[in-house]
Amino acid sequence: MKATSIIPSILYEDATAAIEWLCNAFGFEKHLIVPGEDGIIVHAQLTLGDIMIMIGSAQRQSEYTKLIKQPNEIGNFETQSPYIVLAENDMEAHYEKAKAHGAKIVIHLKEEDYGGKNYSCYDPEGHLWNFGSYDPWNTTNK
User: Fold this and answer.
1) Full strand arrangement of the beta sheet holding 83-85
2) Side-by-side strand order, sheet with 9-12
3) 25-30: long-range contacts (C-beta < 8 A, 24 or more apart)?
4) How far is CA 141 from CA 7, 8, 12, 37, 137, in A?
């Protein structure tokens, strides 16, 4: 069996606002948005270059959403966090843009001993995001 990609799925209390923030702060683009009743987002797909994330409303009552807890429900912690690979020459601008849009930086942009630069931040609903230029698929940076 061969997998071809992995797509993180994140639920938000206010998915509509989260989608706008993720596009403005991190540079994602709307690929597909499926609205539901009462302002919820049933399903959304956002892209950044060749990667995709899926977003939905936390209050949607589905089998899947009943399995997920929000950071504010578990003491403002995360148990999972995406790491998104960016080009080395994009790191500084991405970091500054995220800060300008209110991302709570928890690990400032820095160079790592194993290669590349990275930073970590929280979005407005407390989800942890990691961005870095270290690409484990690229054997030239090992």
Assistant:
1) 83-85, 128-132, 117-122, 104-111
2) 9-12, 51-57, 41-48, 29-35
3) 25/97, 25/98, 25/100, 25/101, 25/102, 25/103, 25/123, 26/94, 26/97, 26/98, 26/129, 26/131, 27/94, 27/97, 28/53
4) 24, 25, 35, 47, 9
Contact between 49 and 26 under an 8 Å Cβ cutoff? The reply is: no
Task: Write down the pTM of the prediction.
Answer: 0.86
CATH architecture of residue range(s) 9-141: Roll (3.10)
- Is residue 97 scored above 90 in pLDDT? yes
Nearest to 49 by CA among 131, 136, 141: 131
* Stretch among 14-23, 63-72, 127-136 having the lowest mean pLDDT: 63-72
